[in-house]
Amino acid sequence: MALTLDDVSRIAHLARLDCPPAQAQALLGQLNGFFDIVETMRAVDTTGVQPLYTPLSSVQEVALRLREDVVTETNQREANQVSAPAVEDGLFLVPKVIE
Amino acid sequence: MSAHLFGVADGLKALADKKLSSLEWTNALLERVAAHEALGAFLHVDAAAARAAAAQADTRRAAGNSAALLGVPLAHKDIFVTTAHPTTAGSKILKDYRSPFDATVVARLNAAGTFSLGKLNCDEFAMGSANENSAYAKVHNPWDATRIPGGSSGGSAAAVAARLLPASTGTDTGGSIRQPASFTGITGIKPTYGRCSRYGMIAFASSLDQAGPLARSAEDCALLLSAMSGFDERDATSLQQPPQDFHAQMLKARDGASAARPLAGLRIGLPKEFFPAALDADVNSAVRAGLAELEKLGATLVEVSLPRTELAIPVYYIIAPAEASSNLSRFDGVRYGHRCEDPKDLLDLYKRTRSEGFGPEVQRRILIGSYVLSHGYYDAYYLQAQKLRRMIADDFQQAFTQCDLIAGPVAPTVAWKLGEQGDDPVKAYLADIFTLPGSLAGLPGMSVPVGSGAHGMPVGLQLLGNYFQEGQLLHAAHALQRATDWHRATPKGF
Amino acid sequence: MTAPKLIRGYEVVIGLENHVQLSTASKIFSGSSTAFGAAPNTQASAVDLALPGTLPVLNRGAVERAIRFGLAVGAHIAPLSIFARKNYFYPDLPKGYQISQYEIPVVQGGKVRFFVGEQEKVINLTRAHLEEDAGKSLHEDYHGQSGIDLNRAGTPLLEIVSEPEMRSAEEACEYAKTLHALVMWLGLCDGNMQEGSFRCDVNVSVRKPGAPFGTRREIKNLNSFKFLIQAVHYEVNWQIDEIEDGRAIQQATVLFNPDTGETRAMRSKEDAADYRYFPDPDLPPLLIGADWIERVKAELPELPAVMAARFESQDGLLSQDAQMMTASLPVARYYEAARDACKAPKLVANWVMGEISRRLNAEEKEIDQAPVGPALLAALITRIQDGTISNNAARQVFESLWAGESDDVDALIEAKGLKQMSDSGELERILDEVLAANAKSVEEFRAGKDKAFNALVGQAMKATQGKANPGLVNELLKKKLTAV
């Protein structure tokens, strides 16, 4: 499955990464090199096999543990915002969000 | 004995016998840390805070406090968030980031009485096998400064091998504890998935990441792992089991064992796929020497098969980047971390921040991950990989019907030269072949030093156990280390 | 089955997606409070802010409410369901993905019944799933920047998806209202639409009858039923205009502007919305056992439809009146309490639908805040039933009760001198006088003019200053007129 420059550009946008043309070409080569080794995997017959999303479910039933509906967090705004790039009136500032 | 030579177990004994104080120990280490800055092991050191913590530990000890690891100095891989030091994950995108909370693993070790000298260098977001992907500095192997220490826990391994620390914490997603331990001649363990809490461990691949200790003996690893591990209600993948005393489990004699043959009855499986023709002869020799010692101690070696070993590479390199691509979306310059200057709009904020903040390997993996999850490709790549993952896990269960532990090399070669991988990331991926299968299955695994290979570089023996069998792994490793002294070898000049 | 009404020759196809904020105390994946109105980011924990290293843990209360909903609409509760990550970038989405459910939701299928006028409709649900709400971006301008408040990020949502079976704005509105009443009835949601507790996304398309489904556009975030109707009407006509002008409808997400009454496609065109869904590795599968479902079933309140049927059969209420008495659980509880106290179901229903409803609407109060509680209403109704006062008089007493002048019905009757004249003897005497004074009417009545009877009743009431018991007057007059 060979990627094209269009693919690279589309995926970079999805991932919110810049990809200037010079870089895109080199990246394309590396990505295609990677997908070569991945091709072997695609051909394997996996009919009837359930995906393994969480490792231990291969040997036991793993059920999601739930927590009680109780408020346990207090206001930690100052501590939580200590590394914030731009804050005013307790709000995180970003370039204007236009709908 | 010079204070910096103490490991965890003998250091604790010296503290208890009042032959050593925590402050003396810490001062000795800080001197060495400063002297060996060129290794690149540390990203951040806070000497004053370390001394203060050491002094406090001494006071507490004098007052009768008996926390299990009271007064042991160590340091944390910069993947663990800490309140006491900045956390960068080896990335520019988190430069100067200060977490308001400690990772659970860090908090547990603090509660057990340890304290940290600072933060250890690692590959950016734990993505790498050589610690050449850190945005800040490369790490050098103490055995040969022109060579890599392994990755992603390169700083953690180098610091322990160079005797800058008795022990450190690391993380292992595809081999990032085992491989650097192997390349630097120390002992490391990646426990069963879920054994250690991932809360506060900056996520790379959530279904694979595990925390673990690196030290100079299995015994030290057991002591640390006991403190680090345990159920955490803030991690929904945390194993719901009572606290484990891995040290006790390590010491517990096997049924039918004797002093001369402590491993009598232990069947060690050697997957034929772990000993391919392509395996470097020097690595094979060292590994075989280690296995021979285990046999002398009473273990039986049996041949087993893990037929899908090679598939582990594409399977891992589909799943890990996929999960990472999503985990790293939160780094967007909005709430913390790096933000590009004067973003002209939202799109510019995101793109420039992330492109400036993430290194090339991280960007590569984010792209791969986004691609394999994208519309039209999910079934062929991600879903297929997760199905193969189950088959790989099943292969292990099949093998474990014939043996108790699985053994083999950690890596196909010894540590390579800095810069050798060049522009070919795929070559590095291929070298992970022996550690990836165990990671995908979520099984516990160790690396134990078994002497040296080419260029006098260390070689590690990998031991893999079935789920929850850390005790058995540590027991075998400990028996080996009681009978041999490969783990005591010190790099020249250290 | 009536044919769907066409608009300019087109059939309208509507499906709804409702986002219901669940009434848990804490958030779906963190222990932060869900209380509305806190200062920005004071209810946003490390997990809510997606600080590095944080992880989600699922709130049992959210799951319980999903089960409750599923049981109430007769849906299948999935014994195993999966949480998935929906990946996209937006400043109010801290992780860069929303934890939701994709391939295997917790609630599957189900039905919602309601009336449009006299017509009963049943709409099938596709599914309902749990997910987390996003934060908010504030409209105030911070020197050209937007301010992001993440208090709301992580609030549990139940997204309820209907099949595209509605055929008019009115149907969509009634469906939404029914769903709204139901989630409040079940105690899942406070239903406060101004605060965003219950939101409607409406998928609208048009087609010529018999043609395949047209391309739909999604009107997002409608938070009032009035706007829902307006938005749908505008959108339908817009789509028809486009088609008639020869343009194809492009799939789009649109916003409704209440000031202009128009819908408009959003600026941020979602890149064909590639959300790259995959199961969240931080959350193993949610398993719901039969015993949990049984427990929730046992604690489920009687559903409105069942209760309404009971009011019809046991209390003799008309279907429509039974519907009104089960419009909300507080109303139903009020009705039952009053009914039990005075044993006059129809009168209670009339008073609730009439005098009480009117005042509650005018004062923007809920029935729980009514100054006249069920016991007091029952006491008043008892005095109507036992003939002490007439209906008209009762209204006057009620006025005073509501105003809080007194809570003693008898005292008010006394003070206002509203006691009906029910003394037959006295009444007979007065009637004889009336008949004597109104010979003409008597003759007309005897001649077959029924209207004359009413005139005589009127005269009798006048003669008693309205205090005569009308029922008794009727009875006695009839007797006198037929006797002679």
Strand portion of chain A: 5-15%
How many distinct helices of chain A?
Answer: 3
Largest sheet of chain B: 8 strands, mixed
The outline of chain A comes out as flat
**Rg of chain A (C-alpha, Å):** 23 Å
So how many helices of chain B?
16
Look at the helices and sheets of chain A and give the structural class.
alpha+beta
- Tell me roughly what share of residues is in helical segments of chain A: 25-40%
CATH-derived topology of the domain at 1-44 in chain A: Histone, subunit A
CATH superfamily of the domain at 3-260 and 474-488 in chain B, called what?
Amidase signature (AS) domain
Number of strands of chain A: 3
* Average pLDDT of chain A: 90
Q: Structural class given helices, strands, pairing of chain B?
A: alpha/beta
Q: Give the proportion of residues in helices of chain B.
A: 25-40%
| Named CATH architecture of the domain at 3-260 and 474-488 in chain B | Alpha-Beta Complex
Overall mean pLDDT score of chain B?
96
The low-confidence runs of chain B, each spanning 5 or more residues with pLDDT under 50, are none
Please, could you describe this protein's structure?
The complex is a heterotrimer of chains A (99), B (494) and C (484). Chain A is an alpha+beta fold and 99 residues long. Chain A contains three helices and three strands, in the order ααβαββ. Chain A is flat and about 55 Å long. Chain B has a domain at 3-260 and 474-488: Amidase signature (AS) enzymes, CATH 3.90.1300. Helix content of chain B is 37%, strand content 13%. Chain B has helices at 8-16, 22-35, 47-62, 104-111, 154-161, 178-184, 218-228, 246-251, 281-296, 312-327, 346-357, 360-373, 379-399, 425-430, 436-441, 470-483; strands at 42-45, 73-77, 115-120, 167-172, 187-190, 210-215, 267-271, 300-304, 405-409, 445-452, 458-465. Chain B has an eight-stranded mixed sheet with strand order 4-6-5-10-11-9-7-8. In chain B, strands 1-3-2 form a three-stranded mixed sheet, with helices on both faces. Chain B is globular and about 70 Å long. By secondary structure, chain C is of the alpha+beta class. Chain C is 40% helix and 20% strand. In chain C, strands 1, 3, 7, 8, 9, 12, 13, 14, 15 and 16 form a ten-stranded mixed sheet that branches. In chain C, strands 6-5-17 form a three-stranded antiparallel sheet, with no helix packed on it. Chains in contact: A-B, A-C, B-C. Strand 1 of chain A pairs parallel with strand 2 (58-59) of chain C.
